[in-house]
Amino acid sequence: MKTFKSLLIGTVAAAAVTSAAYAERGSDGEVKIIYWQAPSILNPYLSSGTKDIESASLVIEPLGRFDQDGNLVPYLAAEIPTVANGGVSEDLTTITWKLKEGLVWSDGTPLTSADVVFTAEYCMHPEGGCAQAAKFEGVTNVEALDDLTIKVTFGEPKPYPYQAFMGGQSPIIQKAQFQDCLGAKAPECTEANFNPIGTGPFKVVEFRPNDVITMEANPNYRDPDKPAFATLTFKGGGDAAAAGRAVLETGEFDYAWNLQLAPDVLANMAAAGKGKPIAAFGSLVERIEMNMTDPSPDLPEGERATAKHPHPILSDMKVRKALSMAIDRDLLVEIGYGQAGRPTCNLVPAPELYASDNTDCLTQDIEGAKALLEEAGWTDSNGDGVRDKDGMKLSLTYQTSTNAVRQDFQALIKQWWAEIGVETELKNIDASVFFGGDPGSPDTFQKFYADVEMYANNFDGTDPEAYLAQHTCEKAPRPETQWQGENINRYCDEAYDALVAELGKTAELEKRGEIGRKLNDMLTKDSYVVVPLVDRGRVSAHANSLGGVVLNTWDSELWNAADWHRIK
């Protein structure tokens, strides 16, 4: 019987990247990265947008990361704590991290355990609305034992203790820079949020939100020969097609992220021979989120899209299920992703241990969807093709970020929903705004001022505990958390919360898989608050002259940028 404790007793994989030998730091000049979703902030604790988390990962780092195979590897930590090396207690209630000696921030000051303790305080502050709060699930105390040693205590045994301070979503921030930014003050600290002092291979020179980040090699980076590049330009905005062309056709950029393009478009670009697409499957799922609260602009600001007002249409599970039944996922894959996509009914499609055998949604059923709406009392009383009930039309606003594939999906889904009597207004929002997390913007995916919205995200590492914990009741975005929070659809079920707690204290692997699959099913086939569409392979591209790239679907895609170099 495998348990996480038995795995902890074993060895932890070493980093699997073979780094190039460099003559000296900065000898390879400039490297240029393009993300068509432009970063709007460099603080992952105030944004769950991938483009913000990954750009920040060049500057601020966690204690450990997950490599391209999902193995745990130390970064700021001297080693990954295990039961065998004494870092994880026998009763699994504590994990003790040791920092590498001699680490300094880019400003030359020492990195100490106080910075790690402060990072926990920052994210766990009850008024902060931390976008990564699920990473600290079950943590009751974080303390510094000495300048290099940090002890994390859990309220009960934590068989998988690698959440807080692991991966690009949970990096260490400098106490001296952020100490006046706790709680509700966090979004107000613009200088710190835009220009974090870090330990990573690069440091920020200039950050222009939703546009360009200019970076230079960190002169205090722990490896004196890295990074190979003296400067880094991180361009944001545009669209996936322009990003792909900039690497594969024109050679203007060295690396392009998330080429969400139709397969024939990508193939034509690659034929130019300037670069190569790279792809890997992980846990990235394109899905539709159903808003469980009322986003009506007629409600007072502060009550709109909150638990005070349940959604007048989508609170009925039969309606949510009918909307899912009307979708042809095979066609979505065909037009949007080809071999880089797979139809799915699961929010957690991998690893295999956690992947449910749920296939109920894979067959489109228009007639069944119509019948379900009839059963729910939605009929077309005046023959205009749109169902109604108690004087309300079955009309929905469907939003997503601006992207050719997503707009194709919207158009098809609108057509299928029209066939079952649903009127749909389509809305697309610039990705930099949609995923930006600005508490003052009405157009963020966290604020969710729409009925349904579509996007994709994934989780660090190969264990989905923190990812599934995002859907517990208290993690719903709301005004008092500055609209931060991971429970985007405002789903709230005490039974779900209890099962998340059970997962957190379950050691036996097969049992963890069973609970994880049940949680997945509660969100998908049991309630349809999350409607998965496509299990997406991550597709990016790099120039033929850029060496050292290792695509990683389990952590930040830029996780090993310190090892990138120019092929001469």
Summary, kept brief:
The protein is of the alpha+beta class. It has helices at residues 4-9, 50-56, 113-124, 175-178, 190-194, 240-248, 263-270, 317-325, 329-336, 366-375, 404-419, 431-434, 465-469, 494-504, 509-523; strands at 30-35, 64-66, 72-74, 94-98, 139-146, 149-154, 202-208, 212-217, 231-236, 255-256, 275-290, 341-343, 388-389, 392-393, 395-401, 423-429, 452-457, 530-543, 546-547, 565-566.
Q: What structural keywords apply?
A:
single chain; about 575 residues; alpha+beta; D-Maltodextrin-Binding Protein, domain 2; Dipeptide-binding Protein, domain 1; Dipeptide-binding Protein, domain 3; 3 domains; eleven-stranded mixed sheet; three-stranded antiparallel sheet; 15 helices; 20 strands; about 25% helix; globular
Could you please describe the fold and organization of this structure?
There is one protein chain. By secondary structure, this protein is of the alpha+beta class. It folds into three domains: 28-59 and 200-282 and 537-568, D-Maltodextrin-Binding Protein, domain 2 (3-Layer(aba) Sandwich), CATH 3.40.190; 61-187, Dipeptide-binding Protein, domain 1; 285-459, Dipeptide-binding Protein, Domain 3 (Dipeptide-binding Protein, domain 3), CATH 3.10.105. Helices cover 23% and strands 20% of the residues. It has 15 helices and 20 strands. The chain has helices spanning 4-9, 50-56, 113-124, 175-178, 190-194, 240-248, 263-270, 317-325, 329-336, 366-375, 404-419, 431-434, 465-469, 494-504, 509-523; strands at residues 30-35, 64-66, 72-74, 94-98, 139-146, 149-154, 202-208, 212-217, 231-236, 255-256, 275-290, 341-343, 388-389, 392-393, 395-401, 423-429, 452-457, 530-543, 546-547, 565-566. Strands 1, 7, 8, 9, 10, 11, 12, 15, 16, 17 and 18 form an eleven-stranded mixed sheet that branches. It is globular, with a radius of gyration of 23 Å. Mean pLDDT is 93; it is low at 7-21.
